[in-house]
Recover the amino acids of this structure.
């Protein structure tokens, strides 16, 4: 049987654009149909923005690659119409165990807070994530969404102009030219577009190699995350065992720096290592093997005129903490509504600059977190190893040291605290977690979940307030979501959104981030906050 | 609360003696590991990030002057 990633899902087809004398111009061209490009394409298609998504390949990614999809990614996927499919297919786990040598030094339970529709995260092969997204693309296309997907289209040249970008695309039928109002480069860490434009990509290289193996086996290991420091089967290094759907297990083995990469990748050598880890009585087959080194780096800016970078093309992190695909999907989430507002003329181009400032801020946070994990897992100096080992030794005996053990932190969404789109917090004692800049926190209501009612457009969340805003007071289409205490069965709505106040008004962006909040209803303040959220920093403070 | 840099241990000789005694018979590597564990235990007991930052700074000696 062919593996799913060997099947062409969007094979090359000749398009009318290839037969015109003049290059055709499109609103948005996205390069790269990975998780980030697909998420953005779906978001734009749902908003009715004309988009062409091109990729030099014609199927899903080879091997499992990204396997941990965090709650925020699932919430975004809900808005994109694929969340349930991902959760149904994915593996959920709560228990993590940390071993040092042969000793289990502690275990942790990731039982999430109540009242969220989605779990803390799921394990799922990247190719399933992409398949779900591709199916969604097909459904949207059948419904008439203005989205084209072109496989076998490889970017050969890119030229950035003042008000558009011109592209040269290679296809099996030869090259053709295309123009785009906006070009979104979701073309991965090696981004040919970034290279073609000669843009910087600086950061820190970690001198280490990791062997990743996807192994198919009918083992009765529990569905848990197991992480080893210095295990007997990989002395002086680390190891990770993680369950994916279809009896596929992800195994990560740290190899160190001075290795023979080709030799390590040979199946007989991989099998020898896995036998040592799993015990020679366990039968398995290798699905995919890869060796990687990694870097933590980002572009100085993610926007360059009409070219915008999203996902790995803009920033790269270590794999510890699942911040690659998850942060890339947040990039797409952040960019989609801004592109729409600019293309539709309801916002100035400065709004796109807020994508740059907000997601650069997010990338720095992710790089910081994943660098911390990396420094813990692979100490870079004798003294950092002494402290690392001290933490592990203490963690076995005393609870206080366990939070210091860092084998990869849960990926959390970024709070855009200093965003130019925020209106200063006007709730004196409002809960910190729902302050302006934060993504909305989910709450179970008596008839569903809060996040199901928000997103896609600007929303006004009115809590225990009778009035609604008159639509003639504002220009932008806005949803008004009126909730009162009777829907708040658990008290979580009040705890997460009211604090000690009895009522509140929240202005929520299309990406479910909070732009402003008040404890009283003031239509003028709302209109002004909405204007600020669309102005992208071009509005001067009075 | 501020970091205490004035005498705060009632029996200084006792504490210092105990500290050295804890290292008796340890190899250099074991002593380094012991010190690291001790720092982490004491750091957790203090808990306050501001005081810890002050302590990290104070231990450099050079930047003691305010």
């Amino acid at each position: 049987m062919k593996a799913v990633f060997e099947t062409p899902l969007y094979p090359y087809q000749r398009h009318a654009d290839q037969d015109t004398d003049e290059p055709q111009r499109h609103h948005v061209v996205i390069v790269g149909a990975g998780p980030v490009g697909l998420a953005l394409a779906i978001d734009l298609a749902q908003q009715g923005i004309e988009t062409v998504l091109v990729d030099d390949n014609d199927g899903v990614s080879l091997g499992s690659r990204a396997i941990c999809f965090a709650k925020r990614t699932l919430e975004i996927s809900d808005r994109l119409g694929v969340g349930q499919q991902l959760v149904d297919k994915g593996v959920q786990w709560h228990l993590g165990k940390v071993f040092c040598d042969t000793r289990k030094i502690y275990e942790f339970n990731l039982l999430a807070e109540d009242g969220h529709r989605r779990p803390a995260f799921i394990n799922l092969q990247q190719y399933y994530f992409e398949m779900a997204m591709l199916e969604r693309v097909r459904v949207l296309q059948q419904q008439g969404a203005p989205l084209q997907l072109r496989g076998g289209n490889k970017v050969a040249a890119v030229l950035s102009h003042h008000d558009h970008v011109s592209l040269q695309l290679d296809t099996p039928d030869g090259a053709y030219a295309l123009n785009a109002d906006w070009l979104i480069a979701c073309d991965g860490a090696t981004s040919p577009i970034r290279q073609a434009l000669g843009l910087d990509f600086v950061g820190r290289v970690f001198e280490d190699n990791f062997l990743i193996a996807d192994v198919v086996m009918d083992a009765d290991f529990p569905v848990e995350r197991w992480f080893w420091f210095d295990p007997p089967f990989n002395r002086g290094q680390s190891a990770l065992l993680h369950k994916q759907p279809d009896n596929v297990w992800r195994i990560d083995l740290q190899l160190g720096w001075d290795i023979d990469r080709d030799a390590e990748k040979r199946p007989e050598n991989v099998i020898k290592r896995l036998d040592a880890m799993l015990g020679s009585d366990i039968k398995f087959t290798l699905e995919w093997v890869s060796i990687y080194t990694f870097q933590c780096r980002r572009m100085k800016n993610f926007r360059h005129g009409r070219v915008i970078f999203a996902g790995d093309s803009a920033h790269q992190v270590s794999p510890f903490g699942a911040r690659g695909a998850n942060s890339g999907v947040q990039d797409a989430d952040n960019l989609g509504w801004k592109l729409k507002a600019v293309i539709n003329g309801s916002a100035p181009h400065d709004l796109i600059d807020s994508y740059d400032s907000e997601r650069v801020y997010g990338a720095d946070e992710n790089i910081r977190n994943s660098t911390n994990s990396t420094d813990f897992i692979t100490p870079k100096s004798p003294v950092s190893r002494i402290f690392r080992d001290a933490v592990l030794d203490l963690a076995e005996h005393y609870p206080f040291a366990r939070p210091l053990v860092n084998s990869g932190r849960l990926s959390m969404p970024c709070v855009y605290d200093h965003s130019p789109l925020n209106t200063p917090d006007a709730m004196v004692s409002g809960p910190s977690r729902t302050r302006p800049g934060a993504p909305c926190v989910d709450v179970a209501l008596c008839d569903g979940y809060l996040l199901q009612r928000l997103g896609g457009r600007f929303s006004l969340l009115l809590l225990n307030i009778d009035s609604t805003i008159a639509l003639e007071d504002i220009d932008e289409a806005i949803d008004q979501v009126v909730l009162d205490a009777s829907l708040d069965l658990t008290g979580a709505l009040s705890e997460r959104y009211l604090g000690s106040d009895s009522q509140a008004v929240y202005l929520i962006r299309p990406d479910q981030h909070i732009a402003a909040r008040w404890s009283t209803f003031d239509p003028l303040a709302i209109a002004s906050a909405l204007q600020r959220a669309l102005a992208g920093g071009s509005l001067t403070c009075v | 609360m501020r970091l205490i840099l004035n005498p705060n241990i009632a029996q200084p000789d006792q504490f210092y003696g105990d500290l050295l005694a804890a290292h008796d018979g340890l190899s250099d590597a074991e002593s380094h590991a012991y010190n690291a564990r001790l720092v982490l235990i004491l750091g957790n007991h203090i808990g306050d990030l501001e005081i810890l930052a002050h302590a990290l700074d104070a231990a450099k000696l050079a930047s003691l002057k305010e």
User: Anything to note?
Assistant: Helices of chain B lie at 12-22, 28-46, 49-58. The interface with chain A takes residues 32-33, 36-37, 39-41, 44 of chain B (CB under 8 Å). The two ends of chain B are 17 Å apart (CA to CA).
